Amino acid sequence: MKLLFVRHGEPDYTIDSLTEKGWKEAELLAERMERIDAEERIREIYVSPLGRAQDTAAPTLKRLRRNAVTLDWLEEFPPQILRPDADGRREIAWDWLPEDWTVRSCFYDPDCWGDDPVMREAHVKERYDSICSSFDRLLASHGYVRENRLYRAVQANRDTLVFFCHLGVECVLVSHLLHMSPMQLWQGFCLQPSSVTGISTEERRKGKACFRVLYFGDTSHLYAAGEQPSFAARFCECYDDAEQFGERTDD
Asked: What's the CATH code of the domain at 58?
């Protein structure tokens, strides 16, 4: 089985939709999804309830003449933490300054990252576990039942499932499949708008499956059309790059 995770196009968060560029990205993405569907037939399409994900999926659904299943747990990962440098303001759970999170060794541990006091206060791990449990129930309905860190292939298949969602929750799901700390994905990997992550099962012994990343945050559908990927989700490459989209965090 293959899983395709799609981040929404460039967002306009003020209206929970897409920018003009985001709509163009969604159309180019739809062309890519049409080719994938022709080659391997997409079995099911799942989408977050949030507007920016729904709008990104819309051109694909129209082109494929398909409907999607909306899953509430695919919404953006919601917990907000009291980030150490934020003076009492709550920030999204994965938005930490590098000098703060890298010194906490628990954040590199897939079993203990949620024990950090900041994460524990905001009940981040409980939300993480709830989402992963919902994800596992969905995978079980498609023939793969989680047992410890592997999956039992009750009904092995070559189906392709597509998930239109968000940066934070996508990293949650990938970290669960790979048994990694989500902090390493949130902090170390970038998912640009409309990017596609492909993950496939591998069954080296009959009935025992694991998931392996084929590509992460791929935007080749944009480059093929001469469209530059959005800078959203990144911070400035150099501190003085004021023209780049990003956040100055020492003000």
From this structure: 3.40.50.1240
- Domain of residue 173: give its range: 2-224
Distance CA 95, CA 87 (A): 14
pTM, 2 dp:
0.95
Instruction: Tell the residue number behind the tokens 């709550």, with chain if given.
Output: 90
> Would residue 39 count as lying in a domain?
yes
Question: How far from chain centre, in Å, is Cα 13?
Answer: 17
Residue 243 lies in a domain: no
Q: Does residue 216 register a pLDDT over 70?
A: yes
What is the number of domains present in the chain?
1
In a domain, 100, yes or no: yes
Terminal-residue alpha carbon distance, the chain: 47
Q: pLDDT tens digits, residue range 229-244?
A: 999 988 888 888 766 6
Burial of 28 (0-12, 13-18, 19+ CB in 10 A): buried
* pLDDT per position as a tens digit, 10-63: 999 999 999 999 999 999 999 999 999 999 999 999 999 999 999 999 999 999
Contact 185, 178 (CB under 8 A): no
* Residue 172: both structure tokens together: 């949650």
Cβ neighbours of 224 (radius 10 Å): 11
